[in-house]
Amino acid sequence: MELIIAIGTFAVGILLAVLFMFFFGNSRYNRLLMEAEKEAEVLKKNKMLEVKEKELQMKAEWGKQEAARNARNQSIEAKQKQREMAINQRQEEVQRKMSEVDTVKENLSNQLVLIEKKKQDLEKLHQQEVVHLETISGLSAEEARKRLIESLKDEAKTDAASFINEIMEEAKMNANKEAKKIIVKSIQRIAAETAIENAVTVFHIESDEIKGRVIGREGRNIRALEAATGIEIVVDDTPEAIILSGFDPVRREVARLALHQLVQDGRIHPARIEEVVAKIRKQVEDEIVETGKRTTIDMGIHGLHPELIRLIGKMKYRSSYGQNLLQHARETANLCAVMASELGLNAKKARRAGLLHDIGKVPDDEPEMPHAILGMKLCEKYKEKPDICNMVGAHHDEVEMQSLLAPIVQVCDAISGARPGARREIVEAYIKRLNDLEQLAASYPGVVKTYAIQAGRELRVIVGADKIDDKDTENLSNEIAKKIHDEMTYPGQVKITVIREMRAVSYAK
């Protein structure tokens, strides 16, 4: 019961609380609603005012834009009017210039007509003058033209000949001066020995007793030595000397060395002679190869074929007009290098060609062909370069020169052979050469006398003044020089001087 009374009391309290909240809360709600309506009205008025302000601003902006648009349209219209005016002015100017051009064209046409008329008048006057001149001179215009051309041609020929002679004289003078300068410089820088080789070798012995041992019983030793070496051994009354005679220097050297070893050994009989000669021959062959190698190293030449090196060493035992061939080749090579350097050319190639230029004089066989051609073929065989082969083959003009170094080799070969003391020749051959020179020059018509002077280095030719004029003297000198070059063999060069003079002789009685 108490529980029911407590529950009822609690429910009544709750009901009273709800009723209290209902009555007092409704009045507050109404008050809040009225306040909200007032605020809404205020907000509505404010928004209406903002809308009106924005409307006014938009109207103002639209008015500005419309004014700007109108201003732009007006400026565009003004520019279009200006362009139209400029185009109209240009059209007017073009029309004016066209009219001026038409006027000038018309004037030119009138002037061309006048010029053509004047030209026709001048042609008529020219024809009249030509006829008048032909009548006066008795020559036609074509004949007069031909005579004038011939006269001008002769005058031009004379002037040209004089001009050419002046140029040639100046060129010769300068060329000779420069050539002499280069040659003198080259020769001054080269110091060569004078080497003379003979066809005999003298073997000195200590006493005449050895001569008998060399001859042997009934001459068997000397016959065995001659048969083994191919050298003639002369044992005569010459004191303490045995003469070895032969044209081949290599054989003479083998015989000399073999005889020297036999005399020192003391055993001289045919079997020993053959043994010693074979041994010495092998030593000489080795010496030839060694000489060739040493020469190429001294000259700074590399890459030569071993056979060419052997032939270079073989030059040591050969001579030309008494001049040692190896010495001549070395001298020519050095001269070629110096001269090529002076001229700004390849000194190494020049030295190589100078050393090989006489290689055709020492072949193992002796074919019937000039040594220059043979040397060229040997160089080609052993893979030397074509320009080197050409220099070797062209140094005596057997083949055509194909480079600037080829004449240098030819000149240096002549310098080495022509210097004083380098070569010698027997008196009979020397006299014959001088006679041949004089007879060759005397065979030309108009030659009165010829004189070979300066040991055959100059030939003076005296011609008759009534038979040859001044112009022909130079031609005669060139012809004699060419014939001497083609038909004769001579060291160095030969100067040909043609003298033409007029002598008037009278006697007072």
Explain the overall architecture.
- There is one protein chain.
- By secondary structure, this protein is mostly helical.
- Among the domains are: 219 residues, Hypothetical protein af1432 (Orthogonal Bundle), CATH 1.10.3210; 75 residues, 2-Layer Sandwich (GMP Synthetase, Chain A, domain 3), CATH 3.30.300.
- Helix content is 69%, strand content 7%.
- A hairpin with a 4-residue loop joins strand 6 and strand 7.
- Helix 5 crosses helix 6 and helix 8 packs across helix 12.
- The longest helix has 136 residues.
- About 1% of the residues have low confidence.
User: Could you tell me the number of beta strands?
Assistant: 8
Portion in strands: 5-15%
CATH architecture of the domain at 200-418: Orthogonal Bundle
Helix content bin: 55-70%
Low-confidence stretches: 193-199
The averaged pLDDT comes out at 79
Could you give a short account of the major beta sheet?
3 strands, antiparallel
CATH class category of the domain at 200-418: Mainly Alpha
- The termini sit apart by 219 Å
Descriptors:
mainly alpha; Hypothetical protein af1432; three-stranded antiparallel beta sheet; 14 helices; 8 strands
